[in-house]
Design brief:
By secondary structure, this protein is of the alpha/beta class. Helices cover 33% and strands 26% of the residues. Helix 10 crosses helix 11. The structure holds adenosine-5'-diphosphate (ADP), aspartic acid and magnesium ion (MG).
Length: 407
Amino acid sequence: MALYVQKFGGTSVGSTARIESVADKIIAYRNQGHDIVVVVSAMSGETNRLLALAHDIDSQPSPRELDVLLSTGEQVTIALLSIALQKRGCMARSFTGGQVRILTDEAYTRARIREIDDKKIRSELAQGRVVVVAGFQGIDEEGNITTLGRGGSDTSAVALAAALKADECQIYTDVKGVYTTDPRVVEDARLLRSITFEEMLELASLGAKVLQIRSVEFAGKYKVPLRVLSSFEDDPGTLISLEDENEMEAPIISGIAFTRDEAKITVSGVPDVPGIAYRVIGPVSDAGIEVDVIVQNVSADGSTDITFTVKRQDAEQTRQIIGRIAEDVKARDISLDTKIAKISLVGVGMRSHAGIASKMFKTLADESINIQIITTSEIKISVVIDEKYLELAVRSLHSAFGLGGES
Ligand code: ADP
Ligand code: ASP
Ligand code: MG
């Protein structure tokens, strides 16, 4: 008998009929004698609907109230799923994040889990119940409701699996597992049977939303066996592997991630003197805005251009901050481009292979796609391009690196 934490995402619980099929799936596991803790998301579209309601009233709603509002989505699903389980004669009980004491810090809308008290869940399991927990939410020390950032139910599930030392954390979603790239963009994307933590961490942080990045960090830190699989099909899906793979045998490229989430700001014609990057970027980071890629050009006439990217939602605020310091840093011009996309090739095998970057650049050149920024690390290469070429670029790279086909 094993203990499984099973998480079902928004599409998987998107209607009452789907909630009833999730109940059947859980019961099939239960009938094999396993203990089951279930984590659910809000029904698909619900979190966005709630957000839009708040924004109808105020463009900058209070983060505390947003969390009170957004957490209701998951509360609906835990109750409906428990009703469906009970109707089938399965003992089940629903709990909000606060009720099982998922304790977080007080950073509303992006809280981090600090501690989980497993007593309550263990006692429910001991009484033979399936425990249904609301994902994405917790409470802080003061008892305020907090949420964990978009996609945060993945992290709730992995954190519960870590706290309960579960045999496996299973993330059920609307695709069969982790693919070489988003299967909604590239039709012949290949399902990966396993992927290393390091690669999954990169893919998640570079835009593959199949797992929230924090869930992968958590799983790596607490050695939680993690699997991504389909809610709708019987398939073992993808195992995020804990063992160190033999890198010599690892594929050079494991996957391609991309994001449309960023915006690019260029501050041009600033004097090329010590401290200039700090004077431009400092005020942006001080405002709590995350700066991603930064490039500074060399220039012959003693002036330089600094280009950096931020989350698209922070673009306007960043432009205002740079506008305020423009005179002080003697900027000739400031430009903002929100129509960019970042594409990243990821693979641990890249470490031992040269020529990946040039092959990537040639592939894009052959499609006449201009590269605006390039950044690299040991196991990834990212380029920023015009958003309108995103899909073409991903498809061409996917095929140039031979990533497609049957798994
Ligand atoms: P859930 O609601 O179950 O949490 P998400 O929408 O958050 O589901 O994540 C699943 C989606 O992630 C898929 O439908 C797919 O479009 C997208 N995705 C992006 N990159 C990948 C990838 N490399 N492998 C699988 N899915 C991916
Ligand atoms: N419902 C939340 C969201 O849409 C959390 C999740 O689904 O993981 O972001
Ligand atoms: Mg998700």
